[in-house]
Amino acid sequence: MDFALSDEQEALAGAERAWLAKNDPIAARRPGIDDGPARTTAAGVRHLAESGLIGLLTQDAGGTQVDLAVLVEEHGRAASPLPVAELALATRLLEQLDHPAYEAAESGAELVVPGLTSLENPALHAQIDGTRLRLRGTTAPVTGLIDAHSVLLVAATDSGAEVGAVVPVDAVSIRILESLDVTRSGRSPTCTSTSTKVRGRHCSTAPSPSYTTHCRRSAPWMHSARPPASSR
What we know:
There is one protein chain. The protein is an alpha+beta fold. It is 27% helix and 29% strand. It contains 6 helices and 11 strands. Helix 1 runs parallel beside helix 4. It is globular and about 55 Å long. Residues 197-232 have low confidence and may be disordered.
């Protein structure tokens, strides 16, 4: 089995290495290293979006997990705070779900990062009570959550059905994690009572003043919640 990178992957790595050398994350981080956690910059997100790297794993782009690993390696080598893998993985899942947040996520207008479960917190719990969906649980640490607009959560119901939920970060409790890595930030979101109505096959409701919900009732269940433009 050949584990060597292809010419295209070498070129991808070289192009990203060149951009990181020109936009040195370490030099940008050094002046404010004592001022708080590393942040995702607008210029960095714009680069990922315009280069098509946020949508790398989408069907149109046709990228692979190896391509993504090549990018992550370059960003890790340069101590970049950009959540490259998180944005790409969340965008791919949103595409698979035919999710309303997909286009905004792919373009970088809406930063969506995935909140995964851990061995300590094996699953988020979803309760579907008539027309209402409630999520409870805590995820593993989420890179890039500090500057994200929403977090993509996957939960399971008692019957084993899966729920994909895009929830605004201001709708969950967030615990800041201490780390010796000053180039990245870690946050662990907790859903204690995130709820929304699920009505018919398609719906558009406003369960709270802070965000609007769009959902599509299918298998697996899908739910999203995004802040309205007026509140951003």
